[in-house]
Amino acid sequence: MTTDPLSLPDHLDILVIGSGAAGLYTSLCLPGSLKVGLVTKSRLPKSASDWAQGGIAAAIDPDDAPAFHVADTIAAGVGLCDPDAVRVLAESAADCVRSLVDLGVGFDRIGDRLALTLEAAHSHRRVLHAADTTGRAVVSTLSDRVRQRDNIQILDDAFVLDLWIDPDEGRCLGAVIVRDGILKWVRAGAVVLATGGGGQVFAKTTNPSVSTGDGVAMAWRAGAMLRDLEFFQFHPTALAKDNAPSFLISEAVRGEGAHLVDDAGRRFTFDDHPSGELAPRDVVSRSIYRYLTATADDPAEAHVWLDLSPIGPDHIRARFPNIIRKCQNWGIDVIHERIPVSPAAHYWMGGIQTDLTGQTSIVGLYAVGETASTGVHGANRLASNSLLECLVFGSKLANIEVWQTAIEDQGRTTALALDPVQPWETIPTSEWDWIAHLRSELPRLLWKSAGICREASTLEAAIAQVEQWRQRWNGLHVTQHLTTTPPGTTRSLLTPESAPAAPEVCMHQVELWGETRNLLDIGELILKSALFRQESRGGHYRSDFPATTSDWRVHTLISGLKVWRSSPIPMPQSPHS
After folding, report:
1. What positions carry a catalytic annotation?
2. pTM score, two decimals?
3. Quick one: CA dihedral 443, 444, 445, 447, positive or negative?
4. Secondary element (H or E) of residue 546
5. How far apart, in whole angstroms, are the C-alpha atoms of residue 379 and residue 228?
């Protein structure tokens, strides 16, 4: 690893931030004539997309149709879906599947036909899969293709601190990036945020460690419009084993016939919904939550059971080899034993508001994938629509508008010497200790106050705590150190005497500071959005406002410190009317 400023380019045509399915597919869809920089915090591939097990929804069966897919998606979204966005999603699905097959993704087949499975709240079998590692199959293939493209420069092991916004025109000019111990303002003709979700803001999540809400937080600090941040989907079946990560046990397992049961083997979810374990995810998660609250001394540490025996051993081995392997690592034989499971934060329906081309409220700034709010998910995402959304709206960016004047050679950026007053190495150790403490405490606070069930008093107390943390955060030496470099400049975060390992240590600390900052921002935004919406709908449940009401058939909008309602959303027409 070097500290050469040239490890980051001065300017690019397009800067894509994030390397999951959304960022990779977008990069491949951009015109080959454009110079593209793909920024990733780690190395390809490491993302939530890589962890996705279930599959990709597409109405390609002769008995299915996009209209049915539209209807199922809108029903799951509980009144907040944008019908136009949903139609684009469903009607583009088949083309995206063909594109992936052409790229080399090895979906499972039955004979010469693509295999399709059923998942919760789908009316037809329409979910394509590659065993139970569909996301990995997609992301691995896309990563290989990206590496083969001469016009795409992969900027790995890099961290984006903030967007670069023109103070006069409000246009996005690029981003502030740290790589190899160098902080640099990088110009771009357009910036695409594809940073995924923010599940790490909760103590229990199926998301990987990189899912810290970076894109949403950066966009908010830049002044972009955000939407529906209170709607977080809690997956009902994450592995609940002491010291084990909250590994997701795919929806497809229940789709193939597995049962959710209590200690006595009773399928208790039918107490709450006639579809039992195949009800929408928020319903199943709350059913488990209610059961554990009523029966366990400590519901947060308790679990129910997922029984795979109705599927049959041979089909389990063929269909779910990754789940078998992951559970074996934790001493669970899924062929002969039930799997202990409990809900965990899984998918963020809200995000940066975009139109159908990915354009945000800031000129030159685009968003795609989980970090965006396109309108397709509404208050609750239909299973296996997430990878599909990455592909469909990533493809729309093929017509991205590049602001050419932003990438003209305006002279090399100015290099600054290290600040002699506060060099990186003399930032107090106590600050790093407190940041690490905050990084662990914030998700616990959000899980208790804005998890599966919410109510006003705990939300208000949590907001007050976050505001106290923020006051201390703003006064940290490291906060000042990383937020005061003038636009258009480059600086080293290292002293000339730094040891060879210093860049690696520096990047670890930058990532700790940057991710914690982003989690603090999105945590407060989620809490305020959840307090603002005084009803229950989709992934948002208020125990003090348990009903879904027509008065709240609106989007929650946030820009800066202001939270308000959108205009009322009209009732969608039936696709058969």
Report:
1. 281
2. 0.90
3. positive
4. none
5. 8
